[in-house]
Amino acid sequence: MKTILIFDRMLGRFSLYGAIKMPFVHDLKDFPIVRFDAASIYEGYGDRWCDEMDELLARNQPFVLIYLAIGDESDADRFKRGAWLKRNKDAMALNLLALIHVEPNEEKRQKLQTMLPKLVVAFGTPQAARASVSEAEALARQLLAGDALCEATPAA
Predict the structure, then answer these.
(1) Nearest partner of 12 among 28, 33, 34, 36, judged by Cα
(2) pTM
């Protein structure tokens, strides 16, 4: 097995790996604003997604996660994400200020808005939906500055 040196942007350092890691699925260039874009998913990305989320929580710093409309994903990947979110519900509540969905289609966004309270109950994370990335980023900055999200939040 070859050993290779790869810059791990989640850890912010070079690491030695015995095998090539799968591509990153989260964009951290503007941390504490984190983006998850449907364009970055691939068959089998679920394990990488879970690893990156573990690393985000290990930072023990508040952040906001922006989900750009998720397209088609395999049932296996969706199951892995869902199971991870349920398993880490308490840890997420400590650092994830909100999950903001970006859905440009008004009809789909309205449908998503009606589902947000159920997602909050399932995963314990405040959630919102916005029509554009710029709207989502504006909300993320407000939340990071200390404003409260009044849309869909966990019950006290």
Answers:
(1) 28
(2) 0.80
